[in-house]
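EI: anyone free to look at a 134-residue chain?
SC: sure, send it
EI:
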Amino acid sequence: MTRSEENYLSGLNPRQKVMGAWHVEQALEQASDFSRPIQELVTEYAWGAIWGRPGLDLKTRSMLNLAMLTALNRSHELAGHVRGALNNGVTEQEIQEILLQTMIYCGAPAALESFRTAEGAITEFRRAQGRGSR
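SC: here you go
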């Protein structure tokens, strides 16, 4: 097995744990011939080579992603990573604090957009967990 294949296989576990097995299964199954290479590369490099490293736990990696995705203004990815952060034990209060911190360094428009995105993702996560809204 090549290192690339090893990274891909080792990337499936953290990707499924963080994003949810159903989400990953759907992303891979619904990939077209055009998009399949990017799905494979994301699994191999982002999830296998980086998320699979021992230097940071999944919770810390999730917290970093929330701040970086806010800085990049990537709302769609942020929503998925808010759900992943909750799966990794990041609390709603911690998410709120991360996003408040980003307002200072990334600007109010980016933080406001992230708050809207995060609130929707949290509501969706609660529903999926059977907890309703608070």
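EI: Residues 126 and 132 are 5 Å apart (CA to CA).
SC: 👍
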